[in-house]
Design a protein that fits this description.
Shape of chain B: elongated
Order of helices and strands of chain A: HHHHHHHHHH
CATH superfamily of chain A: MetI-like
Strand content of chain A: under 5%
Number of domains of chain A: 1
Number of domains of chain B: 1
CATH superfamily of chain B: MetI-like
Largest interface: A-B, 44 and 41 residues
Helix content of chain A: over 70%
Structural class of chain A: mainly alpha
CATH class of chain B: Mainly Alpha
Number of helices of chain B: 11
Largest sheet of chain B: none
Order of helices and strands of chain B: HHHHHHHHHHH
Largest sheet of chain A: none
CATH class of chain A: Mainly Alpha
Distance between the termini of chain B: 65 Å
Number of strands of chain B: 0
CATH architecture of chain A: Orthogonal Bundle
CATH topology of chain B: MetI-like fold
Oligomer: heterodimer
Number of helices of chain A: 10
């Protein structure tokens, strides 16, 4: 407790760093993976290729990816860009699969009905497919957010400071409250992003919670 | 790409294949931690998952545990457990951390594997006079295998990745050459070791995927493919 009180400014600063480092991969994951997921859902060949590639990518351990990316991209191992790009790749890897599932979960009749009332390919995507895929997309991006927040901590091993700093520093100085503070704060940052996404989902898709409430009443 | 050449030179130099800290030794350590943690997690998680799936008791816990576990930073968990249990116990502490990480996907796989079986299938098994044990072993477990093996795949992936971090507490494994090389800026060494870790993870993942195809009964695979009704109606027509 003493350690936490004495170091609360640093806890605040590193928490902010952590949030900042998490936002970019989460956003990139959503923006890049949603169209890729649609492409994966749309054709059989693209599904095999895309899901295969993201599956391989996701299998590579984060510490290894932090070492493999820099020579490929001409970055320094110890740069923030290295960590941000690696985490963005993981975010895309998780999200492409979710997005493909999200678009595949849409009732085909709804799509045929949209075409029948005169939607073109693009109009149908934005007005019908995207909203109907919304709840599953939200579930996917929540997984991305939580796992990104957790992975940011590994960045401390390549010198990118986040709440992970409390793990290495606390371990070397044998201060249990410091490591514990890092774990708890990382957990809270993950909960914060998760809660934010749930609220955003309710705001953007008010019908989604209505639909589940209806289903609840029937059963 | 000079760095890649240097990394390969490091990887295939004679010193990586002899003495203490050789690559084969690091791979053995890495696989050792991984397999012990996954086996312990299987022993703990599968019976619990099947119990919850079969009885339907406590399924609210599953969602909470699997969601919450994803938010726990695995690196922090290892260091915290090592500090709390004592550095002399660091090997058990690190394995405990790996077990804790492997449990949620296995638990979720076993539970969801049983929960997704249509109620009518279980009811008809019961109405045939099957005992609860027969229902569990002859109906629920075989039909749950695709999802259980999916959970196993997730667990192995998570544990192999996290086992690279146990080198930080002095336990070796393939993460050793990476974690030791970064402060020294020996990026040929770190890249070489990273390539081995990545290959090991990919090979293990492929092995589990292959095992799951082999372990799943053929009838279960057939049933999970496409539209069963369509197949039934074509059968009816030939008759």
């Amino acid at each position: 407790m003493d350690w936490i009180l004495a170091n609360s400014p640093m806890i605040g600063q590193l928490t902010l760093d952590h949030v900042r480092l998490s936002i970019i991969p989460i956003l990139v994951g959503f923006i890049v993976a949603t169209p890729l997921g649609w492409v994966a859902h749309r054709w059989k060949w693209s599904r095999g290729i895309l899901l295969g590639v993201v599956g391989l990518l996701y299998t590579i351990p984060s510490l290894a990816l932090f070492m493999i990316l820099p020579p490929l991209l001409g970055l320094s191992v110890l740069s923030e860009a290295n960590v941000l790009i690696a985490l963005s790749l993981y975010a895309v890897a998780i999200m492409v699969r979710s997005a493909a599932d999200a678009f595949s979960s849409i009732e085909p009749r709804a799509l045929r009905a949209a075409t029948a009332v005169g939607y073109g390919e693009w109009g149908r995507f934005f007005a019908v497919e995207l909203p109907l895929a919304g709840p599953v997309l939200l579930a996917g991006i929540r997984v991305v957010a939580v796992s990104t927040v957790s992975l940011v901590t590994v960045g401390v091993l390549v010198g990118v400071s986040s709440l992970g700093y409390f793990f290495t520093d606390g371990f070397q100085r044998r201060i249990v409250p410091e490591v514990l503070a890092g774990v708890v704060m990382t957990f809270l940052v993950a909960l914060f992003f998760d809660g934010l996404l749930v609220l955003a989902g309710r705001w953007i898709m008010p019908w989604a919670s209505l639909a589940t409430a209806d289903r609840g009443r029937v059963t | 790409m000079d760095l890649l050449r240097d990394a390969l030179v490091w990887l295939f130099s004679a010193e990586q294949f002899q003495g203490d800290g050789s690559l084969p030794q690091r791979i053995a350590e890495h696989l050792g931690y991984t397999s012990v943690a996954v086996v312990v997690a299987i022993v703990l998680a599968l019976p619990l998952g099947y119990f919850i799936g079969h009885t339907g008791k406590g399924h609210v816990w599953i969602v909470g545990i699997t969601g919450g576990a994803r938010a726990l930073p695995s690196f922090g968990l290892i260091l915290l457990l090592v500090l709390v249990l004592g550095v002399s116990q660091r090997q058990s502490a690190a394995i405990l951390a790996l077990v804790l990480l492997a449990i949620p996907p296995l638990l979720a796989g076993a539970y969801a594997g049983v929960a997704q079986i249509p109620r009518s299938v279980i009811d008809s098994a019961r109405s045939q006079g099957m005992t609860e044990a027969q229902i569990l072993f002859q109906v629920e477990i075989p039909l749950s295998l695709p999802l259980v093996m999916g959970g196993l795949r997730g667990a192995v992936l998570q544990v192999v990745a996290t086992a690279t971090l146990v080198a930080y507490v002095g336990l070796g494994g393939l993460g050793y050459d990476i974690i030791q090389g970064i402060p020294l800026r020996r990026f040929d060494q770190t890249l070489g070791a990273a390539i081995v870790v990545a290959l090991l993870a990919l090979v293990l993942d492929a092995a589990v995927a292959g095992a799951s195809r082999w372990a799943t009964p053929r009838g279960v695979l057939l049933g999970s493919f496409g539209d069963v009704r369509a197949r039934d109606s074509s059968l009816a027509r030939t008759r």
